[in-house]
Amino acid sequence: MEQYHFIILETSGGITVIKNKNLKSFIRDSKGVSEVLGEILLVGIVVLLLSALSAAVYGQMGMNNVPHVELHEMVNTTSNRIKVEHAGGESIKLDSIKITLYHNGNKYDFYPSDPDITCDSENGVWKFGEIIILDTDQARSINMTINDTVDLYFIHTDSNQILHKVRLSDAWNN
């Protein structure tokens, strides 16, 4: 009993049925294989080059990681102190923090290394549950009263982005 193999090819002219007694000769036919492999290799090279180029461009843009934090602030006008509590989010290095206070239109910059700031952090990293206390009257003689306009900006100096902004005087009017 002879065994026949049928190969069905779909072409632009319709369907072609090839009756082939020996299927192995068809499988071993390598016509067109080098062209297909060449195209696949070229596409792979283009994808690798584009990904390397985009990585280089994004690396040159200097994109900094901006930490996400939630802060709670408490103000005591009688002792002229502002407490800022780390209430959630990422830990922040203390040397990358700047606190800017606008008091009645005057700007004051505070850094954690200043003598009028105390922080209960360990290893120079400010994390969840820790408090920074600004004593505004100690070195700068900023006396806050209930009628003052006080804005607080918490700035990440590495990325130069504002992490938290609040008008402290709004809490006094409530």
What does it look like?
With 174 residues, the protein is an alpha+beta fold. It folds into two domains: 5-60; 69-173, Immunoglobulins (Immunoglobulin-like), CATH 2.60.40. It is built from three helices and twelve strands, in the order ββααββββββββββα. The strands form four sheets. Strands 3-4-10-8 form a four-stranded antiparallel sheet, with no helix packed on it. The radius of gyration is 35 Å and the shape is rod-shaped. The model has no long low-confidence stretch (mean pLDDT 81).
CATH class of the largest domain: Mainly Beta
> What is the overall number of helices?
3
Quick one: biggest sheet?
4 strands, antiparallel
Low-pLDDT segments, ≥5 res: none
What is the CA-atom radius of gyration, in angstroms? 35 Å
Helix content: 10-25%
At CATH level 2, the architecture of the largest domain is Sandwich
Q: Number of DSSP strands?
A: 12
Question: Overall 3D geometry?
Answer: rod-shaped
| Number of domain units | 2
* Quaternary form: single chain
First-last Cα distance: 100 Å
Structural class: alpha+beta
Outline of this structure?
By secondary structure, the protein is an alpha+beta fold.
Which helices and strands, and how do they pair?
Elements: E1 5-11, E2 14-20, H1 23-27, H2 33-60, E3 69-76, E4 81-89, E5 92-93, E6 97-103, E7 106-110, E8 117-119, E9 125-126, E10 131-135, E11 150-156, E12 161-167, H3 169-173
Antiparallel strand pairs: 1-2, 3-4, 4-10, 5-9, 6-7, 6-11, 8-10, 11-12
What key phrases describe this protein's structure?
alpha+beta; 174 residues; four-stranded antiparallel β-sheet; 22% helix; single chain; Immunoglobulin-like; 12 strands; 2 domains
